[in-house]
Amino acid sequence: MKQTWNAKYELIDNNFIGFNLGADFCAEHEWGIKRLQKAFGCYYDPDDFSVMGLDRFHSTLVPPVVSLYNFQRDKIKYTGLYVSSYPYSFSVPRLGRVLPLPTDKCPVGAMWDEGEFLIVVPYPDRDKLKLIEEAINNKNIAIFINSSNNPFENGGLVIAIYDKIPQEISNSFLSSHKEFKELRELVLSTGIEEYLAKHNKKYYALEPKLEDKGDGGVKLTFFLNPKEQSRYNFGWFTLEELKEWGEDRGPVIKRLIK
């Protein structure tokens, strides 16, 4: 897991509905949360549009590890919630020692990756974590990576109580998902996934987005998290640069310093 510095309580009309764990500029926060989505029983197949909108992120399973605990540091009490897709857990006291604690600037301490997350709040706010724990166990959670075109304020991993999310927000998710469907269909039309597979180029993640070119047009770019990272760079690349990668050239290939 990697820590974040912008986690916060998620409020709608001053009512607590969950947490936005934020994100840092690291690969672990760019890979997506497919493993967590599987553990929560959400729809994670990008080509499955049988369920659209917020319902796509609604939990139908309880992850293997859901651990709520209290700990103390420098005579101050905190409460943590650790959730993992793996059938084992790390030592939560150890996690409590390494986790950045809540501060005046960041009221929630958090870290996460594709398969697990940890949230820490001041002990007086423990009831909020208890609500999340109960919602997880009752399969009443929405879990997703936030983006700029949905109504939550900042990007990052969102853990929200499903039945507390207003209908107008649910509607906006449906609109966003329709846009995603169009983007996915555009990616499939390029044949880039089949091209890379044919050239034996393997990766953990290949996430597309459309960027404004500034002249009224848009261009398609991809966040690539490749396997064999001793040989290949991760980061954002154009379709042409990914095709160059298939030919063992271009910016994905690491340049060795002699």
Structural summary, described in words:
The chain has 258 residues and is α+β, with helices and mostly antiparallel strands. The chain has two domains: 177 residues, no CATH class; 56 residues, no CATH class. 25% of the residues lie in helices and 30% in strands. Strands 1-6-7-5-4 form a five-stranded antiparallel beta sheet. The protein has a four-stranded antiparallel beta sheet with strand order 2-3-9-8, with helices on one face. The chain has a three-stranded antiparallel beta sheet with strand order 10-11-12. A hairpin with a 3-residue loop joins strand 6 and strand 7. The longest helix is centred in the last third of the chain and has 24 residues. The protein is globular. The model has no long low-confidence stretch (mean pLDDT 87).
SSE layout:
Blueprint: E1 2-3, E2 8-12, E3 15-20, H1 34-39, E4 65-73, E5 76-84, H2 92-98, E6 109-112, E7 116-122, H3 126-137, E8 141-146, E9 156-161, H4 167-190, H5 192-198, E10 203-212, E11 218-226, E12 235-238, H6 239-246
Antiparallel strand pairs: 1-6, 2-3, 3-9, 4-5, 5-7, 6-7, 8-9, 10-11, 11-12
Low-confidence stretches: none
| Alpha-beta content class | alpha+beta
Helix coverage percent of residues?
Answer: 10-25%
Topology order in helix (H) and strand (E) letters: EEEHEEHEEHEEHHEEEH
> What distance lies between the first and last C-alpha atoms, to the nearest angstrom?
33 Å
Main sheet properties: 5 strands, antiparallel
Strand order, largest beta sheet = 1-6-7-5-4
What portion of the residues fall into strands of 2 or more residues?
25-35%
Mean of residue pLDDT?
Answer: 87
Please tell me how large the radius of gyration is: 20 Å
What is the count of structural domains?
2
Number of distinct helices: 6
Mass-distribution shape: globular
Task: Tell me how many strands there are.
Answer: 12
